[in-house]
Structures are given as structure tokens and as C-alpha cells.
Amino acid sequence: MTSRNPAPRAGAIRVGIGGWTYEPWRGTFYPEGLPQARELEYASSRLTAIEVNGTYYGAQKPATYAKWRDETPASFVFTLKASRYATNRRKLAEAGESIRRFVHSGIAELGPKLGPIVWQFAPTKVFDAGDFGAFLDQLPDAVDGIALRHALDVRHPSFACPEYLALARQRGAATVYTDSDDYPSIADRTGSFAYVRLMRASTAYKAGYAPHALAEWEKRLRAWAAGEPPDLPHVEDAPPARAGGHGEVYAFFINGAKERAPAGALALLDRL
Q1: What b/e sequence results for 236-250 when a residue is b if at least 16 CB atoms lie within 10 Å of its CB, and e otherwise?
Q2: Average per-residue pLDDT in the chain?
């Protein structure tokens, strides 16, 4: 099996997909006859990151995280969607126990392969500075000696405001940029890394996105590595790029025409 997974570096731009178990990928992305037990091994040899969505719906065992760690290349990274029990609640300030339960569920078994944790909020969750700030105050900086980074997937238009940006920046949490008509698209950088979810994949294109669209996303991801892309929706004016900028960038083809996601990720990696 030929691997294209590069060695990690400062300012890496990582591109991947959501999950790795999906029947339409068998015989298209995955070679015919590849055992399902080897799909993670194969996907991680071709891509540089995977967003795990199953952790949003239910807890995984520490042994499962250890297995994922051992089946993937040294430079590979998993991002984890945090438990819905922590984020889908009326009062976020009361999420402390659910946050702790998720963080201490065994995610530290991933070791250096543990990427950002994504906290996804309901589209109906309106921004409340006091309640949201109390939630952010409960996000831990580390677990079992492993540093944690947090990405906030906010889905109500009320979050597109300077007050939210200030809170996220104070806590060093990134804001997920969502390429979608259904949720707010906020390109303002609030953390040390950028996190992008590409959700407009269409069956009209082999890679889900048209070639010219992939070219634009290549430019944007490179811009995020040094600052912020100026051509995307901002709450505040985009700052100039930093000379020698080295922030990590994570981009995932997820949702839309999901069957096209691996082809889109591979096409974008080729451009990068």
C-alpha cells in the first residue's frame, strides 16, 4: 500500500473526510476487495486527517482510541466531535459534568494524534455571552498530559458578532468556518489554528467541487495558515497576513454529496 501521508510540520494544512466507514466509498475510494477492517489504515495512508463524528453520538472505549492510534501513520491526526450531551442543552453553563465525562473517556489514548475537539452547537442555540462564556471556562487545557485544542461549531446567526469573537479569542478557541448556506460562515480567526468544513459537495463534479472552486479553496487554506482569507465572510475586517505565519489548518469534505468526499480531499491535497 503506497502512502502519501506527509511528515508533520509547523503550519501544516491537513485535509480529510468525516469518518471512514461508508458503503459508497467501497470500490471507489477503497480498492475492491479491501477488508473493512483495513479501511482506516487505507484512508489514513491517503489523507492527513479524519473528523470522527461517532463520538458526538456516543462514548468510545479507551481501547478503541488506542486501536485507531496504532492503525494510522505517525503524522496522522484525528479530530473528535465532542458529545452532544455537552452542547445540546438549554444552559451551557451546566455542561461541566458532560464535558468532563467526554474528555476523560479515553481520548488521551490517541496521544500526539489527537487533534482539535469540535464542540457543535444546535442551530437554535442563540448566543448569550454569559452562558457561552461559562461554557468556555469549563473547557480543559489538557487531559493526562495531552494538550487540548478546541474548535467551536456555532450554527446560529447571532454568533456573528464581535462579542462572540472576543470570548472565543480570550479562551483561544477556534471558530469553525462552514462552507454552507444553512449555517453562518465566520472566517474571523479566533484560535491558533483554523478549522474548515466544506459542505457544498455536488454529484455534478467528480471531486464534489468544481476545479475552479478547489483552486479557490487551496488559496484560502494557504491564507489561513498565515492569517485569514480576505474573500470570505468576516464579522470584523480581516487582518493582514503574518510574515512567516505557521498556524495549522484543518479542512474536511463533509456532508453534501458524501460519496464525493474522498475524491475532493485527494484533489485538494494534490493542489497543496
Answers
A1: eebeebeeeeebbbb
A2: 93
